[in-house]
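Cross-posting from the modeling subforum.

Setting up a comparison between two proteins and wanted a second pair of eyes on the formatting. Protein 1 (sequence, then structure tokens):
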Amino acid sequence: MADRPVPVVEKRLMDVKLGELGSWLGGRDFTPNGIISAVRRGHDRYYNKYINVKKGGIGGVAMLLVGYVALSYLWEYDHIKHDRWRKYH
């Protein structure tokens, strides 16, 4: 028996072909509640995959820390760049 085709709206992003991307994005919920629920689902998936495991390691926390450091560097890049070209004499 063949599997029934899955509607584009119900597919995950990694399963969507490039030609179907527009209709997939059109089916997303961009209301404030939809965005909050998407962020909550992403947080729950991250927490269950990397933090809430039986034999946990430093990987999930290290990934979070590296992301924080990279984001902080991007936020302060203009200030760092300005200081780099400043003459002190």
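Protein 2 (same layout):
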Amino acid sequence: MKMMMSDYEVSLVNDSMHEFCVRFYGPAETPFAGGVWKIHVELPEQYPFKSPSIGFMNKIFHPNIDELSGSVCLDVINQTWSPMFDMINIFEVFLPQLLRYPNPNDPLNGEAAALLMRHPKEYELKVKEYVQRYATKEMADDAGAKDEDEDEEMSDIGSISEDE
């Protein structure tokens, strides 16, 4: 099921209001510009008093985002989270700020943090390379479908075929 949140396309996961995916575009004038990501958001029962968990479903190269799982550093969310925020703040303020001003001192991706601190130009090039390779609209749209296929393969013991 899809619904709109202002300018954002939102897909509910299992028709739950506590778990959904949102299409997010990289902020202009950053190396992430032009990128499209599918963001997985899960709201805890204590929401809005407790921050949501946020994850990128297609790859992104950023010090505060785990490259494999796509999880956004919880410390970073919790430092800025307020019960006064609503969901739109995540996509219009929090995520653009996170991409604009990465914090290499609290990394989930050590390689990105080290590159940002030692070789900022190389960091920017690698971010742009990831945007071109992994952050297209097609990659974002396919991000969830691929995971579902893998889950099915895991539960189907008879299937050993591999597409990739």
